[in-house]
Design brief:
598 residues, alpha/beta, 6-stranded mixed sheet, 18 helices, 13% strand
């Protein structure tokens, strides 16, 4: 019996004892609050809201509740989102038991790192804001519960029925919206007691380095976090074990006299669960070195979140590297004996955007690559084994951030032979090896050109819902499409020169490699995105409505989001035009960095 377990709580919740009527807000998404206010006429001001976990980052749920005027938030895991069909709860199966609750932070940092030292490392000498000026802290109390407790609250809810089936979970309750309760419970209110306290405390990153033999001033970083909410059987220890194994392998090579061409940096981050603090503060402290010398960052959180197939999220610069590497690694999947990982991955999860290749996702956030990719502009990627997202509709994996996320659940259900862990180690370790040891960096800028074309089409298609306004306010995407075409030509020309380069001329190779290394950096805008100064990548950012998801051309997308409801339409469309012009300039400038040096 383990007794000293961290009880379920929402890290960085405000303190307080709010009391009020209860309102059920589904997943607490932007569109859920729109539906309540605009279509159902339900006002959340002064109410306590209950939201189910899933679909989006919990911090976004809390922010949305706060903006809607709620005075407290109860978060719960509904079996519809945290139980797979036909599977028993732990310990008999791998589903979440009714008493299990998901811990997690409820910050809205938008890449700031330590809330008291935004933009700068939280060193001994650092100036710290007082708590009232801290970044991203919620202003209302928040607390997580399991579905057994949630059922007690939801069973007697009054008010209208749920607007449609997407508002219903799997509990045996009506999912009425409220506010308040019915029958003999009609006079009752809900009262929260949240007394958690925030304090400044020391955190520890562990950093190891293998100095590069030829280009020691070029860094390839493999980083993953070490801290966990309870036992961390999956998050992060399945990933941390992989990092240890990769480090052990490189240590063995080094003992035999080998060194990589470029420097390898291995990082075990602390305080990831509290807002990506270990990685962000380290990157803030080393920002000048990283922007001058950082070639790539490979993330290493959970190695498994399912056992169906590989999942990759990365910059388009790494697409060809990932495809080529996975063709060299054997598939661990049943029925794919003697075949490559690429083959099983491609068959199980083909791309919907490109022909005859497996799916690769955009990088969002919610993990330690954030500062490297979204703030500094270092090419980044992540790999893990995942579930079949098309069929398995539950959120994340059922026991996520609960006391039941143990070594046993991994060993008994997720990966009994650890073959998927080994495969992920080969992918992560292989990416690091190729990036650190290839004479020419294994980046292909032609894939970036293709991605930009695709993203420009997507954001243009969003604008087609507003044809009248586009004409009225003279909004055009022509300049952006022109810049994308120029980038495409520059990328094709650069690739041709790369093929013809004299690889025995170190100066030529170094010059071309630097163009490749700095390409990701070229998409960084020093001013950042509107209201989010630490998200500076113009092509990719975490969605403003879900930190976990990646958004392409986020400045334009956000300017057009819900634009019909803006009071000043002229002003709103002027901002869209401004964002199109920023994106155009950035893509055109990035194309310029690929041109032949004259």
């Amino acid at each position: 019996m383990v007794t000293d377990v961290v009880p379920p709580y929402s890290a960085f919740s405000a303190q307080g004892v709010p009391e009020g009527e209860l309102v059920y807000v589904n997943y607490g998404r932007t569109e859920d609050f729109f539906k309540l206010k605009r279509e159902m006429g339900i006002n959340c001001t002064g109410k306590i809201v209950i939201a189910r976990y899933g679909k989006i980052f919990r911090g976004n749920k809390v922010k949305n509740a706060e903006l809607a005027g709620a005075k407290g938030v109860i978060l719960y895991s509904d079996p519809a989102d945290y139980c797979a069909t036909g599977v028993d709860p732990f310990p008999k199966g791998w589903n979440l038991p009714g008493g299990g609750a998901q811990r997690g932070n409820v910050l809205n940092l938008n890449g700031a790192g330590d809330p008291l030292t935004p933009g700068y490392p939280a060193t001994e000498y650092a100036y710290r804001y007082e708590e009232a000026r801290a970044v991203g802290l919620p202003k209302i109390p928040v607390h997580p519960i399991g579905y057994n407790d949630a059922e007690q609250f939801l069973r007697n809810m009054g008010g209208p029925s749920p607007p449609d089936s997407s508002w219903k979970g799997s509990l045996n309750v009506s999912y009425n919206i409220g506010p308040g309760f019915i029958n003999s419970y009609s006079t009752r209110k809900v009262k929260m007691h949240v007394h958690s306290n925030n304090k400044v405390t020391r955190i520890y990153n562990v950093i190891g380095t293998i100095r590069g033999a030829t280009e020691p001033d070029r860094f390839i970083i493999l980083g993953g976090h070490r801290d966990s909410w309870v036992f961390g059987g999956i998050d992060p220890q399945s990933g941390a074990a992989v990092v240890h194994e990769i480090v052990r392998s490189y240590g063995k090579l080094k003992k035999e006299g080998w060194r990589p061409r470029r420097t390898m940096i291995f990082a075990s981050w602390d305080a990831e669960e509290f807002g990506l603090l270990g990685s962000t503060e380290w990157a803030e402290e080393n920002a000048k070195l990283l922007q001058a010398r950082g070639v790539a960052y490979i993330n290493a959180d959970s190695a498994v979140e399912g056992n169906y197939t590989l999942r990759i999220d990365c910059t388009p610069l790494m697409y060809s590297l990932v495809y080529n590497l996975t063709k060299e690694i054997p598939s661990p999947d049943e029925g794919f004996e003697g075949k490559s990982l690429y083959e099983s991955w491609n068959e199980k999860n083909p791309s919907t955007e490109y022909k005859d290749v497996p799916r690769i996702n955009k990088l969002g956030s919610g993990n330690d690559f954030e500062v490297f990719f979204q703030r500094i502009g270092i090419a980044s990627g992540r790999a893990r084994y995942s579930k079949n997202w098309r069929v398995e509709k539950y959120s994340n994996y059922p026991v996520y951030h609960s006391v039941y996320e143990t070594y046993e659940i991994v060993e008994r259900f997720y990966d009994p032979t650890f073959k998927n862990h080994l495969t992920v180690a080969k992918v992560r370790g292989g990416l690091v090896f190729e990036l650190a040891d290839s004479v020419v960096l294994p980046f292909d800028c032609r894939y970036y050109a293709e991605a930009l074309r695709n993203y420009a089409e997507i954001v243009y298609n969003v604008s087609k819902n507003h044809q009248t306004e586009m004409t009225t306010y003279s909004v055009s995407f022509d300049s952006l499409f022109s810049a994308v075409k120029n980038f495409s030509e520059a990328a094709t020309d650069f690739h041709r020169r790369l093929q013809q380069a004299d690889i025995n001329n170190p100066v030529t190779i170094r010059s071309l490699n630097d163009q490749l290394m700095f390409l990701e950096r070229a998409f960084i805008d020093p001013l950042g995105l509107p209201g989010r100064p630490f998200y500076r990548h113009i092509v990719f950012a975490p969605s403003s409505h879900n930190k976990y998801a990646g958004e392409s051309f986020p400045g334009i997308y956000d300017a057009m989001f819900d634009i019909d409801h803006h009071e000043d339409q002229h002003k709103a469309w002027e901002e869209v035009k401004r964002q199109i012009s920023i994106a155009t300039f950035t893509v055109q400038a990035a194309a310029g960095t690929l041109k032949e040096v004259v």
